[in-house]
């Protein structure tokens, strides 16, 4: 037994020495010091995450969004960055954005993107950070995406502690309305676009899709609305030459043809999210809420549906819209219909520059013995702020925290992977600003 125990100990020692020597060969001494800083600050980072998660910052809680921003503002200033709060016009009903920056000409100019707001408004029952065990915590907005913001902060803190941010341009943009983007976009995203124009590349810290995946492409998102009308009459006359089909049948025809004639193209999806129909319809677009009145013995006079459209390029978006218009223009007897579109998030295409950034991240991950990082399927990702600047700089997204259940009362953040992801971010930024 004693001999076996000695053999096991020696085997473990050899493995440890091999692992650490391999690790050392792949990282420079400066990078090793960055790693040491991240490790030393990890407990503080988790505590900071808990602090900001416990501040409600639902998009429409303007006070809470700004309060969260002020906590981050102080923290970025503590690591030597110039930070400023950018107010949005009162009529937009959005709090504003936090930007923090260092100036310089060394290496690549980098834009780091996050957001302060969450989907959990003040009336949500899900309000606080609570550890389930040492690895997992329930956290409203902790995964999407206050955890990503904290990774940005503590990666930069590790660089600052080693005097590595001097003469480098790094801009941090934490928007306050990513979950419900303020309109007009020309105002709500103007500061982000301006920052992109002064940068060489952008890194987005939205929820990670897996420890060994990153996002080189994201689908865009836009809205659509179909409104139909029919002849109000007694239901005994429905389908007759005088009465026709009614508004609800016309709306159903359109949705059915959308499904049968347009569905199936790669990366293209369209979802009807709300539908109302009857004799009278009232709908509040700001609240996405409405009411309808109708009777079973009355042919429906009006109907409407609102939906979303996801696409990988502007060409795909416009082609889909064209097909939808053609379907809407055909009518059941005695009915009419119209369709309108609203732009929201543009698409982030899978460019060569984005793949080049992925390869840099992959090299960092391998050097940290964290494994290969691959491109994630864009069909499985939603829209994000990085899409607004994809036409100006190369980008990579999905670099935030691991977790599950985003946008639900079961949202969790994985605390075990937090330190590793921060290390990966810190080394990637260091190498980029050192090029």
Can you offer a commentary on this structure?
With 435 residues, this protein is α+β, with helices and mostly antiparallel strands. The chain folds into 2 domains: 27-218 and 348-433, Aminopeptidase, CATH 3.40.630.10; 220-345, 2-Layer Sandwich (Alpha-Beta Plaits). Helices cover 37% and strands 23% of the residues. The protein has 10 helices and 18 strands. A 6-stranded mixed sheet has the order 1-2-6-3-7-16, with helices on both faces. A 4-stranded antiparallel sheet has the order 4-5-18-17, covered by helices on one side. Helix 2 packs across helix 10 (418-433), helix 4 (142-161) packs across helix 10 (418-433) and helix 9 (352-367) packs across helix 10 (418-433). The chain is elongated. Mean pLDDT is 93; it is low at 8-13 and 15-22.
Question: What would a concise description of this structure say?
Answer:
With 435 residues, this protein is an alpha+beta fold.
State the total count of DSSP E strands.
18
Report the span from N to C terminus.
Answer: 54 Å
Mean model confidence by pLDDT: 93
CATH fourth-tier homologous superfamily of the largest domain: Zn peptidases
Sheet with most strands: strand arrangement = 1-2-6-3-7-16
Largest sheet: 6 strands, mixed
* Succession of helices and strands: HHHEEEEEHEHHEEEHEEEEHEHEEEEH
What is the class of the largest domain in the CATH system? Answer: Alpha Beta
Strand-residue proportion:
15-25%
What is Rg?
Answer: 26 Å
Q: What's the tally of helices? A: 10
User: How many structural units, i.e. domains?
Assistant: 2
Helical content band: 25-40%
Under CATH, the topology of the largest domain can be stated as: Aminopeptidase
Give the class from helix and strand content and strand pairing.
alpha+beta
Sequence stretches where pLDDT stays below 50 over 5 or more residues = 8-13, 15-22
Molecular shape = elongated
CATH architecture name of the largest domain: 3-Layer(aba) Sandwich
């Amino acid at each position: 037994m004693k001999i076996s125990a000695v053999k096991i100990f020696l085997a473990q020692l050899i493995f440890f020495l091999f692992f650490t020597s391999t690790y050392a060969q792949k990282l420079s001494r400066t990078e090793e010091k960055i790693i040491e800083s991240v490790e030393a600050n990890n407990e503080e980072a988790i505590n900071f995450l808990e602090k900001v998660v416990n501040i409600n910052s639902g998009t429409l809680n303007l006070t809470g969004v700004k309060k969260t921003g002020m906590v981050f503002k102080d923290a970025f200033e503590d690591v030597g960055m110039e930070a400023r709060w950018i107010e949005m016009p009162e009529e937009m009903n959005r709090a504003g954005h936090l930007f923090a920056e260092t100036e310089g000409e060394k290496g690549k100019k980098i834009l780091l993107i996050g957001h302060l707001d969450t989907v959990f408004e003040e009336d949500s029952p899900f309000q606080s950070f609570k550890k389930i065990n040492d690895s997992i915590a329930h956290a409203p907005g902790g995964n999407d995406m206050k955890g990503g913001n904290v990774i940005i902060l503590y990666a930069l803190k590790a660089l600052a502690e080693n005097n590595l941010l001097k003469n480098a341009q790094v801009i941090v943009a934490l928007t306050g309305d990513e979950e419900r983007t303020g309109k007009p976009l020309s105002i709500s995203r103007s500061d982000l676009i301006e920052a992109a124009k002064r940068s060489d590349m952008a890194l987005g810290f939205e929820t990670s899709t897996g420890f060994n995946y990153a996002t080189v492409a994201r689908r865009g998102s836009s809205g659509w609305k179909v409104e139909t009308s029919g002849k109000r009459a007694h239901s005994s006359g429905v389908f007759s030459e005088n009465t026709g089909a009614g508004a609800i049948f016309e709306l159903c025809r359109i949705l059915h043809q959308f499904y049968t004639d347009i569905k199936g193209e790669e990366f293209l999806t369209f979802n009807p999210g709300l539908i109302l129909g009857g004799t009278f319809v009232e709908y509040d677009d700001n609240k996405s809420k409405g009411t309808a009145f109708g009777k079973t013995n009355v042919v429906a006079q009006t109907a409407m549906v609102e939906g979303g459209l996801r696409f990988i390029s502007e060409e795909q978006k416009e082609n889909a819209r064209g097909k939808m218009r053609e379907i809407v223009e055909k009518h059941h007897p005695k009915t009419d219909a119209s369709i309108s579109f609203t732009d929201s998030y543009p698409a982030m295409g899978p460019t060569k520059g984005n793949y080049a950034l992925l390869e840099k991240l992959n090299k960092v991950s391998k050097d940290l013995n964290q494994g290969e990082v691959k491109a994630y399927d864009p069909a499985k990702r939603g829209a994000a702020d990085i899409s607004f600047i994809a036409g100006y700089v190369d980008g990579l997204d999905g670099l935030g925290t691991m977790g599950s259940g985003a946008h639900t009362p079961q949202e969790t953040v994985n605390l075990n992977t937090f330190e590793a992801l921060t290390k990966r971010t810190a080394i990637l930024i260091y190498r980029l600003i050192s090029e």
